[in-house]
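User: I'm curious whether this sequence folds into something compact or stays loose and floppy. Could you predict its structure so I can see for myself?
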Amino acid sequence: MHVRGNTILITGGGSGIGRGLAVALHARGNQVIITGRDLQKLAAEKRANPGIVSRRLDVDDPAAIATFASSIVDEFPALNVVINSAGILPAENVLSGDTKIAEAVILTNLLGPIRLINALLPHFSRLSSSAILLISSGLGFVPLAFVPTYSATKAAIHSYSQSLSGNSCVTLPFKSSNLFLPTRKQKSSAKSRRLILMQCRSLITYLKR
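Assistant: Here's the prediction. I'll summarize afterward.
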């Protein structure tokens, strides 16, 4: 696919990798739509980057995803790229006996992208050129003990992307990317910001192929 002239939907576009991709892809002449739950972050990105469109979307809410997918396709019929960047990375204590954190991670990191992709596939399948990208992680292959469910969801996302790209019923030019997602403590560091920028540039290079 071409790296310019697309209409791109980016979940989690108000911060981190999603924000970096939104800014970089917008600067390259794409129509960029960012989503998130924090309206203040979305508004700040719109002010900083005139032309970027923002919409609120809670990827934990199946009904909201279905409604959003229908409305965004009506509003932006040229939509041809979705980048699933929304995600959470909480630490877990597996000895606590509580699965609330694990369930929340699965809901946001795995079910959210799957639901959004499934809702958009009928539209994408009618286009001559489209792409779906998921943000995975090296932790999907080399997991960390204190984020077991996060690591598992990233392995699942990688597997899902591979399955989808090989599905004979899905006639899409499909791309999957595995990017390292920093922890919350790392996100504020200058080194982390440089890493996110480098990854965004790498993904843009990947899109050009």
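Summary: The longest strand covers residues 31-36. The longest helix spans residues 100-124.
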